Amino acid sequence: MANKIRVTIWNEFRHEKNEGSLAQKYYPNGIHAQIKSFLDECDDLEVRLACLDDPDQGIPNEVLDNTDVLMWWGHCYHSDVRDDRVEYIRHRVYQGGMGFVACHSAHESKPFKAIVGTSGALSWGDEYPEIMWNLKPSHPIAAGVPDHFDLELEELYAEPFYIPDPDDLIFAGWYPTGHIFRAGATYTRGMGRVFYFQPGHESCPSFHNPNVQQVLKNGVHWCAPTKPGYDVPQGCPYIKPIYGEWPKNED
Amino acid sequence: MANKIRVTIWNEFRHEKNEGSLAQKYYPNGIHAQIKSFLDECDDLEVRLACLDDPDQGIPNEVLDNTDVLMWWGHCYHSDVRDDRVEYIRHRVYQGGMGFVACHSAHESKPFKAIVGTSGALSWGDEYPEIMWNLKPSHPIAAGVPDHFDLELEELYAEPFYIPDPDDLIFAGWYPTGHIFRAGATYTRGMGRVFYFQPGHESCPSFHNPNVQQVLKNGVHWCAPTKPGYDVPQGCPYIKPIYGEWPKNED
Amino acid sequence: MANKIRVTIWNEFRHEKNEGSLAQKYYPNGIHAQIKSFLDECDDLEVRLACLDDPDQGIPNEVLDNTDVLMWWGHCYHSDVRDDRVEYIRHRVYQGGMGFVACHSAHESKPFKAIVGTSGALSWGDEYPEIMWNLKPSHPIAAGVPDHFDLELEELYAEPFYIPDPDDLIFAGWYPTGHIFRAGATYTRGMGRVFYFQPGHESCPSFHNPNVQQVLKNGVHWCAPTKPGYDVPQGCPYIKPIYGEWPKNED
Amino acid sequence: MANKIRVTIWNEFRHEKNEGSLAQKYYPNGIHAQIKSFLDECDDLEVRLACLDDPDQGIPNEVLDNTDVLMWWGHCYHSDVRDDRVEYIRHRVYQGGMGFVACHSAHESKPFKAIVGTSGALSWGDEYPEIMWNLKPSHPIAAGVPDHFDLELEELYAEPFYIPDPDDLIFAGWYPTGHIFRAGATYTRGMGRVFYFQPGHESCPSFHNPNVQQVLKNGVHWCAPTKPGYDVPQGCPYIKPIYGEWPKNED
Fold this sequence. Notes:
Order of helices and strands of chain A: EHHEHEHEHEEEEEH
Strand content of chain A: 25-35%
Radius of gyration of chain A: 19 Å
Number of strands of chain A: 9
CATH architecture of the domain at 5-117 and 183-228 in chain A: 3-Layer(aba) Sandwich
Shape of chain A: globular
Oligomer: homotetramer
Strand order of the largest sheet of chain A: 2-1-3-4-9-8-7-5-6
Helix content of chain A: 10-25%
CATH class of the domain at 5-117 and 183-228 in chain A: Alpha Beta
Number of helices of chain A: 6
Largest sheet of chain A: 9 strands, mixed
Largest interface: A-B, 47 and 47 residues
């Protein structure tokens, strides 16, 4: 039990409450509950849910302190997220190695922008079919994923996407409208690993797509923290020579 | 004139005012003035100075709007820098392509951390001789720089340095104490280019070193903005199809 | 004169000799001559031509020794290129910093594969319109290039493209067929800089496209060698300590 | 059983046969046998040995076809390795995703140079103590490894090391002589993953060092192939449109 990867799926969980919305139709219990349903297929994951309207926005320090990988779904309410929560998430990623999986519109969420260092700017449009291309099939996040797969409908996200060069660019999307988009990208920041994956608009069924599910399962595992062989210090420690004779350090 | 690269060198400019300090001895007119003295040897640079204790901390919007490359030297007074200045600097880098050259302790400055996405954490110690190694001699920032050069004395900065993987790792430092440090690294963030270079402790003469001067001249030129062939939009524009028949967009 | 960048454009120059072919229609004097015509607009370039059927395949050692940037166009006759020429090109890139600009089907040419370390494998199809997207507008190779531009017809090149992760991924192509392709990518290998750019099928007019021309002008300048501040040694030199007392090296 | 990672450790196995040599003292059964002894501690690895003087140099096609990760130790006899073996190794990495772990002097081996695309050039010297620094503690290859560790004696390998920018730079070495070296680096090439790790001179006891052993165990696991969700094609397949009406492809 103790060795399970502890995943917290955070969701605004507001769109799905709009009566008669497609969000409600596709995700009656919330996007986060749908994601949990397929992550639960992995024996080594222990998944809990958190929402914007929970106390402490669902992510008090004690939850984050006990989270190995935080998945984030936000779209229209980025500005409601408290800055102290953002700051603690960043701290947990940089210092504690907590993984961060950013879904869809999280490209513009406060935590993603603060962790990665980006404005998250891109172009966007209506919903169209999308073909997802696998650019790095050798990567663990692409394990079991075909060379391309279809999404019946997704929000148009398009280049230029003003992100830092990814450590790994794993997926890119094609739209019939003439647009492309770097849709799956990894980053390392401090001790933590970050994966951005674009599918998942609230009014599209992408989280029911088996390939999207496979990618997210892989992504959560990839972002899980590695155990370093030393205690990562807080801040910038003062150090003394480990080699040679340096009398002025003999205090 | 219009085509010159407009450089603003920002400095805390407090250490150098301490009577009898080494900072004052090495940099009687300030570290920024010393940097200006050698950048002025480049005909294509137009260099101005700015200090923490100037009005608007030396960097009101109109100065930043007319700066192509901002050099930053800060060490002990990071927390005095106003958050609105940090935010505008980040905006200018991401949106306007302003270059950012981070000197020495700027690894922990607010703008560097916000632009790049890092805690800037490292280990540090007293002052020792340093040998600077050239890891990427093919890079424009290494033009004219030998395979290694000596710094007679520098503050010890040591790994692990918790930075994102650099786009280019150009220099790394060796200390006789048993430590090494990734000392010269580039990043691209939004439209802007960033260069971090480690030498330049206030009580060390590194800004008088010809190789350090060469590297910084190169770095300023490398960080100068490229003129894109389109107007980079603010934020995330809504776009329509550029290919195919999509009636729902015919509004 | 001495400071001009010396460019050699190498071309198979066989397709264009087929009577009545589109290659002949678009490039009556050869693809290489067409590329030269627009590179000649740059005052700082000195351009010469070389062909597969020239003596020594147009690239004897003395030509390569006096070339700063080698552009390569090959498609159907890769296997005719002599291995000793490939080896000397690789030597010039790794050791001498000669730039290498690989056009179109050069992804599968012997020199590109040997320099970069790749099979160059991709998927390909017939000719379709292509939209070229600008993924890294901050890069010098993208200077003056719009966020996207049209190619009226190009050979379909598609992912997965089994290349190493590029240092910079600058362009990617969209085809109406459902395919995308990483179309503009840089590499550093040894002392040399490499740029791959996909447009330029022999029966398509892409080398008449102003944006393609701009990209190739930029690419040639970007690949030009940087002058290091030391003599790059041949092979692996034996070295002695530069610090400390090491009696066994006192020979 | 079927799911074990099949590791083949290749060794020149000539130095260790020199009577009275340090190589024989430290590795009486060969460097490869010593590496096997600690890899065998991992239940999920199935390890076999291969040597330069075995039939087909120990690596006939059927061995390579059944190898998931190939470790390579070579130093003085690189030129004895048959080119057809090098070519098949490269094929297996690019096409089949076979991992490749290059130990010590394998930086200059034929397979490493061909796979990665490098001359492998560096500077080298006598043997000195080395401190290995952990630059990317978040990486799986650094799991369980301290922030630095000592090697009592290693051959001096020094910068500039003319390698392509690593995907991940995980370790770098410090020598008391004033030199540093990028000692642990990863690459992705085609479908395969590559890890270079510097310790392991034949007359030094580094393969008895617990931290070196930990790194190599991690490295073998990291290089093991990922199972893609499609059959990776040989060469460059011809493809048809997957979207839209394209009559000319209706053959």
